[in-house]
Amino acid sequence: MTVTSTTVPDDAIVATDLHGRPDHLARIRAAFPDRHLLLLGDYVGRGPDAPALLAALRREVRARTATLLLGNHDQMFIKAFHNPGRIPPWWAQWIEPVCVQYEQWAVPPQQDAAWLSEHTAHWAHTADGRTYFSHAAPHDPHDPDGRYSMMPAHLWATPHREVRHPLGAAVTHAVHGHTPTHLITGGRAGRPLIWQDPEGRQVTYLDLAGPDSDLVAVLDLTSGQTRVLRAAP
């Protein structure tokens, strides 16, 4: 069962929205071979090879070199197999192309869905509590693990449409994926976005359009700097 929250190393490399792109994970690992990875969710859906990406993530988790957060696509994937009678029809339609990717794969999708449920957290923070991480937005403090909402804010909210839930006074920096940065700014794709939320804290968005781009953004918690990597051709 997905845990509510977890703590991540202060020197982690943060990335998000790999969406069935094992080449993105390989590029990140090549650039940072000895660093712990914090991945902000959306491992399945939209991309070409979710089974291969999840196989690589299993190896990372087994080696304790990565921490995984849950994304909205992962939530749909898990619920499609564990609560099939309680999902909207469009979720069922979405899951079909993901299942097709498993037709030539030894691990069935149900097994990967169960594994994701057991090895992801809803949100995370650094040990000092100053940096907060979730897939999409701050969680609802009255529903921290999303059990009372089909589409909880920390998995589904977008910064240009929904009001952000408040974070604790100790938090000075929040980091998210989910919404491609060019949809927030109206500008060109390919750049991380850094802005201030209504409470005055720094917010970093790292999604560069996931499977539709050969670029992947990372945040180095040691330096506080973002970097854009290109997947190998």
From TrEMBL:
<dbReference type="InterPro" id="IPR050126">
    <property type="entry name" value="Ap4A_hydrolase"/>
</dbReference>
<dbReference type="Pfam" id="PF00149">
    <property type="entry name" value="Metallophos"/>
</dbReference>
<dbReference type="InterPro" id="IPR004843">
    <property type="entry name" value="Calcineurin-like_PHP"/>
</dbReference>
<dbReference type="GO" id="GO:0016791">
    <property type="term" value="F:phosphatase activity"/>
</dbReference>
<dbReference type="GO" id="GO:0005737">
    <property type="term" value="C:cytoplasm"/>
</dbReference>
<feature type="domain" description="Calcineurin-like phosphoesterase">
    <location>
        <begin position="14"/>
        <end position="179"/>
    </location>
</feature>
<dbReference type="InterPro" id="IPR029052">
    <property type="entry name" value="Metallo-depent_PP-like"/>
</dbReference>
<protein>
    <recommendedName>
        <fullName>Calcineurin-like phosphoesterase domain-containing protein</fullName>
    </recommendedName>
</protein>
